[in-house]
Amino acid sequence: MHTLRNRLSRRDLLHLTAAGVGTVSASGWLPVLASHAAEQAAQGRRHKSCILLYMLGGPSHIDTFDPKHDVETATEFQSIATSVPGIRICEHLPGVARLIHHGAIIRSMNTVESDHDRGRYLMHTGYPRGSGEVPWPSMGAIVSSELGQPGFLLPNFVVCNLTDRLDPAFTGYLGPQHRGLILPNLDRGIEDVRPAVQQEELNSRLDLLTQLDDAFRGRYRAGSTVAHQSTYRRSVELMRAEQLRAFDLSLEPAATRTRYTPRQPGPNEQGYNGLRDFGRGCLLARRLVEVGVPFVEVVLTGWDTHANNLAGTRRVSEVLDPAWSAVVQDLRDRDLLDSTLVIWMGEFGRTPRINNQGGRDHYGRAWSTVLMGGGIRGGRVIGRTDRLGATVEERPVTAADFMATVCEILGIDSRKVNTGPGGRTVRLVHRDAQPIRELLGP
Questions:
Q1: Could you report the per-residue pLDDT of 323-356, keeping only the tens digit for each?
Q2: Is 283 a residue whose pLDDT tops 70?
Q3: Are residues 307 and 359 in contact, defined by beta-carbon separation less than 8 angstroms?
């Protein structure tokens, strides 16, 4: 399914209006767009999309997807069977366990980096910070550039629940048009999207701005003026777009909202906002993918478990599991899972050994990520760590390998060469990257 990646034609608008958009209740709007999406898909115009579930702080692989028992580094959680015989994961992820046949667990991440900021940059770009002195674009900016459409009325890249200084929406050399729209508060949605003046006054101001920009561009031939005008034009189109209703979660049935967030944390609970909004962010991600947004990142905090690792990991896992499993199930039920890659990752893992505070510290030598959907060959485990979970013994995967794999799954050429700062040529993904070929193809 793919909708409205290109600007709607007059015929499309008439079709949607006849079908009820703008005249029926808001609750009927999304299915109309979904139906329109099906028509687009039948005509072969569907690009893939991506939902990144970003675990800010770095989850412990031993307490999630690479459980170890009967060793000095063992988790105290039980492991449970999954939908794939022989693959076992943490007991606090039962919903995800039932869906493992749609995904692959990569247990051999080997990125070395164990600083939050540098690890986040590395996993979002595939390049170390400062590599070649090039400002590298984030994963969302790459998808926006490669799969997004300039005429699409909604942002091509959205970030939900960002409550930390670590910004995943940077665009590097790709330019500001590919920066992600950050939604720190889902209750407020897109802020300041409604004009503060009457439409006639707004049109008058926009006409004046266009005249001034045209005059400036005519005198100085400044390309920045074109970008400036484009930004304002898209902002105004967004103000008028019916697609904005995709951001309104109240249009979803109460039962659906509860499936994503069955556990409501209390306002005095540590990390309250991040925990409360993760499930809603996943629901929003599904809605945005349905209407054609190619990349949505949803952030879940609480994984930096230097102390009380077990309690902290259990708490965030109980928020993660229903939301993650619900978004995958909904994508599957809507025939969107094969065209939507769902990524689970942090910036690194955590140490196998428990420290004197009952926690696990930063660790980049051996850890786990998970990929689901996107048409991958699911139901498998990539790589293996040793009995302690301390080193990679089979099929090490670097951040560049991971980025190349994501690009190839989404139909993006990871070997593509772009024009970077100063006109120099730069590769989209590092030249040494090796995509995980066993996940690709039918």
A1: 999 999 999 999 999 999 999 999 999 999 999 9
A2: yes
A3: yes
Q: What is the pLDDT of residues 19-63, one digit of tens each?
A: 333 322 233 334 434 444 444 444 444 589 999 999 999 999 999
3-state DSSP assignment of residue 158: strand
Please report, for the domain that includes residue 120, its CATH number.
Answer: 3.40.720.10
254 within a domain of the structure (yes/no): no
CB 145 within 8 A of CB 123: no
- The runs of H, that is alpha helices, within 160-253 are 199-220, 223-240
Q: What is the dihedral of CA 98, 53, 2, 235, to 10 degrees?
A: 160
Q: Give the range of the structural domain holding residue 279, as residue numbers without chain letter.
A: 49-191+267-439
CB 88 within 8 A of CB 114: no
Q: What is the CA radius of gyration of the chain?
A: 22
Tokens at 167, concatenated: 């910004």
Q: What is the pLDDT of residue 227?
A: 59
Phi, psi of 220 (to 5 degrees): -110, -5
Structure tokens at 10: 């007059």
Structurally, the chain folds into a number of domains equal to 1
